[in-house]
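Problem 12. The chain below contains 340 residues. Write out its predicted structure in C-alpha cell notation.
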Amino acid sequence: MNLQRPGDTRWSSHLKSISSLIKMFRTTCNVLGKIVDEGNTPSQRGEAFSSLEAMNSFEFVFVLHLMKEIMEITDSLCQALQRKSQDILNAMHLVSSTKDLLQNLRDNGWETLLAKVKSFCEVQSVDVPDMSTCYVERRGRARRQRDNVSVEHHYRVDIFNAAIDFQLQELNNRFSEKAVELLMLSCALDPREWCKGFQVDNLCKLVHKFYPQDFTDFEKEELRVQLLHFEAEITKNGDAQKLSGISELCRWLVETRKLDIYPLIHRLIKLILTLPVSTATTERAFSAMTIVKTRLRNKMDDDFLENCLIIYIEREIAKKFSVDSIINGFRDMKERRALL
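Solution.
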C-alpha cells in the first residue's frame, strides 16, 4: 500500500477520491464489467478485467477503508500545514492530537475497522476470508503459503499496524521533540500570544538552546534586559498590541526605528523568520531531486544537477524569463567564442 506523506498537497483530493469510490463501489464495478464485455481493444478489456478482479477482493476493500480512516485523521493537519499564514502554536497542538488519534486507532481501532469492512463486503457481495486460516500470498499467478501466518495476522500486522506506524514515523521525523520545542518557544514573539503574557524566560531559553553561536555570552545577558524593556513598552503601546504576526512585528520595529533600541530582539526575530524558509527549501530540494535525477539521468554532474534543481524549484520565477532575454544574456557574456 503506497500512502502519501502527511503534508502532501494532494492529500485532501485523495481522501475525496477514496470516499467517492466507497460510495460508488458497485457502480464502478458495473462500469468496469461493461468495459470487459464491450471494450474497443483487447488491452482495454484486459486492464478492465484486472481492475475489476482487484476491486472485488477483500484486500482491496480493507485497504480502501484503512486509507480513509488514516486520511480522515491526518487531513486537518495537512490543511493547516498548507496555509501560507501559519499559526505555529495551534499547528503544533494539531500535530500532537494527530499522533494521539493515530495511536488510538492502532491500539483500539482494529475490531471496529474489521467489522466495518465485513459489513461493506456483505452488502457489495465481496467474499470475506476466514481470518483463522493460513495466509496465502499471491504474486501474479503464483501462490505461496506463509508458515504460521494467519489471514488475520497479515491484515492486522502487515497492513493495519504497518500503515499506521509509517504515518507515525513520518510525523515523528518531521516534527521531532526538538523541532516542536523550537517552534513552541518561537511563539513567544508572536503578538497574538501576548495576551497570555510576554514570556521573557522562553525567549532566553530559545537563544541559549537553539541559537548559542548567534549571540555572545554578553549579548545573551543584554538580550534579557532588552526583552524586559520591550515587555514594559508593549503593555502600554496600543499599536504593538494590534500586530498580527512576527513578520508584522519585525516591520513595526523598522518603521518605528525601535530596532536601534532593541537590535538583539530584531536579530532574534530575523532568525525565527528565516526558519520556515530554510526547512521548506531543503524539503523542496530533496523532493525535486527524485524528479530531476532519474534513472536515465543519474550521471549528471553536481553543477548541472544544481542548475536543474534551481530551475525546477523556482519554476514560477523561471516562467517569467523569455527566450530572447536568455539569448541576450548569453550574448552579453564575455569570452564568447562565436556571436549568437
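Discussion. Strands lie at 134-139, 142-150. Students who got a different answer should revisit the alignment rule from Section 12.3.
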